[in-house]
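B., you asked whether I could sanity-check this one before it goes into the benchmark set. Here's the sequence:
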Amino acid sequence: MDPKLVPVLPKPRSAFQGWRYLKANEAPADLEKGAKGATAMSEEMRRELGELGLL
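And here's what the prediction gave me:
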């Protein structure tokens, strides 16, 4: 198991303990793959852009 954390795009979902059991098409995309440069933004900015549907 890789100890490096990979930020993912927020995906509204109810609480769920089995993320590792999700099929690849159901899992949230890696943040950097889904939105280039998003990891350089602050969490607040990413959240606001996400609420606007821009991220």
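One thing to flag: Residues 43-51 form the longest helix (9 residues). Otherwise nothing jumped out at me.
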